[in-house]
Amino acid sequence: WKRVIMLFKDIYVVVPAYNEQKVIKDIINNLLKKFPNVIVVNDGSNDRTLEIINELDIQVLSHEINLGVGAAVQTGFDYVSNIPNAKAVITFDADGQHLVNDAVAMAKEILICKEGIIFGTRFPKHSKNIPKVKRIVLKLIARITDLVTGVTLSDAHNGLKAYKVSTIKELELQFSSYSYESELITQVAKKKIDYKEMPTDIKYTSYSIKKGQKLLNGLLIIEDLLKLWKWNNY
User: What DSSP letter does each residue of the chain carry, written as one string?
Assistant: First the structure.
């Protein structure tokens, strides 16, 4: 256990959180068993999220108002970018969908691989765990992402990712909501950032499904991709 903690002493886990009072304490405590550096970005929560995380042994960053998950991730990136010796960042959703063991595997890999970003993917290893309609929408988004950006991903919108710190310093994310995922992918293409995927499971519960992206957002994501493609080509 101590050896794993020491291995990850230069890795920072960024957890964007908005109104997660029901689950945030367990999620953070589970992360702390493996990672010494956990940063929660409280994105303007109006429940007890901020009160709960302030009692934990973590770094807390806070937005006065809700700005969206993209803005929360960027706040975490900006903070880690200024930490001497920081080597990598893991992004980890606060709704309980991700598994800490998947984050551990990704953290080990980002320290030794040549790629600047590792994207988590539910396909094909864990695709059976995804509700059927959602599975179809995710595959459609991945296909359009490939056609529009040239970035080939089997799961283009998975919150569990690993980044080298040198890579996050290259990124210039402006979008504040879930659109930041599409913006990230277009920048990977534009800046020719090396990337790869690793399998990650998703633990769907009634809570995480309620908190997660709605299927309608899939259409908005496609619209965002097309807009970004247009902006980057004119």
Answer: -HHHHHHTTTEEEEEEESS-TTTHHHHHHHHHTT-S-EEEEEES--SSHHHHHTTSSSEEEEESS---HHHHHHHHHHHHHTSTT--EEEE--SSS-S-HHHHHHHHHHHHH-S-SEEEEE-TTTTGGGS-HHHHHHHHHHHHHHHHHH----S-S--S-EEEEHHHHTT------STTHHHHHHHHHHHTT--EEEEE------HHHHHHS--THHHHHHHHHHHHHHHHHT-
| pLDDT per position as a tens digit, 141-186 | 778 778 778 899 988 788 999 999 999 999 877 766 667 888 888 8
**Across residues 56-82, what is the average pLDDT?**
95
pLDDT tens digits, one per residue of 10-48? 999 999 999 999 999 999 999 999 999 999 999 999 999
* Rounded distance between C-alpha atoms, residue 107 and residue 11, angstroms: 7
pTM of the prediction? 0.86
User: Alpha-carbon dihedral of residues 20, 23, 28, 31, nearest 10 degrees?
Assistant: -130
Token digits of residue 23: 């689950």
Contact at 8 Å (CB) between 130 and 218? Answer: no
